[in-house]
């Protein structure tokens, strides 16, 4: 298919691969489609990706560049008890290893082994600026709580400093009420300053229309998010019809994974999928603004420059950590 508005490189280039090593999660966060209280994720996408399959995916992506590998996708990577082995595989292929996680298991020897394996960036997802708000938004039955996560953050930061590791320890927060933004922002900044880590604070998003943020709904002009054209690929652990390695347009389709499969790495190479019919049709739809159902109500299509409320390190609205590409280069 010919795409006129946004040119596709004749050769596949991958700057970042988000390779989900575990599709499940040990939390049921209120704003997340993984929330078991509202049905949770399609069971076909809850599997674990084994080491052999993971290395196959990393090796395949590394043929096309590969600067960064994120291990989370839309699941919780620390559920894999052999997580340090996944990190070592990423480093074997010369890429940086990043991880976004709820941080419940990131302490003690497990945390130390991950850092020692070469982890480059670890971000604690931390919604709620005090004990009550954390319990409201980061619901879990595992015993995770505000104080425990604060302790894990401090322990990891101290271990990184002690060992001289290059790993960046960071947090990620969401404003839960835009009408109370100034208060929440001040509370988060005070928390982060006390923890002594890097951070980014965002407004709520709607998970491609699956979650209703109510009064926190984003506003702006509708335009392609740029993701289908960018050097950024997302590979799920699960898949359809007994297949695995489902390739998704982005992580925002969590909650409707089954409707947003562009191919499976258990069946085809990432290059074959990238230039295949499904991916090409998605790019055509974004060019023509005839977005598929799993995209058309996503608030990442909205041009809202105020969604990144605060950051104290190198994080741009349209540029992901560790990457060189800017999504603005792929938007219209």
CATH architecture: Alpha-Beta Barrel
Fraction of residues in H or I helices: 25-40%
Report the mean per-residue pLDDT as an integer. Answer: 94
Question: In terms of structural class, how would the helical and strand content be classed?
Answer: alpha/beta
Q: What's the total count of β strands?
A: 11
CATH topology grouping: TIM Barrel
Sheet-strand content, in percent, reads 15-25%
Count, helices: 9
Described by the principal axes of the CA atoms, the overall outline is globular
C-alpha Rg, in Å?
19 Å
Low-confidence stretches: 1-6
| First-to-last CA distance | 19 Å
Q: What would CATH call the homologous superfamily? A: Aldolase class I
Largest sheet descriptor: 9 strands, mixed
What's the number of structural domains?
A: 1
If you had to describe this structure to a student in words, what would you say it looks like?
By secondary structure, this protein is an alpha/beta fold. It has a single domain (14-330), classed as Alpha-Beta Barrel (TIM Barrel), CATH 3.20.20.70. The protein is built from 9 helices and 11 strands. The chain has helices at residues 51-62, 83-92, 108-116, 131-137, 146-163, 181-195, 270-274, 277-288, 293-296, and strands spanning 14-19, 65-70, 96-101, 121-125, 168-175, 198-203, 221-222, 232-235, 247-248, 302-303, 308-311. The strands form 2 sheets. The chain has a 9-stranded mixed sheet with strand order 9-8-1-2-3-4-5-6-11. The protein has a two-stranded antiparallel sheet with strand order 7-10. Strand 1, helix 1 (51-62) and strand 2 form a beta-alpha-beta unit. The longest helix is centred in the middle third of the chain and has 18 residues, at 146-163. It starts with 13 loop residues before the first strand and ends in a 21-residue tail after the last strand.
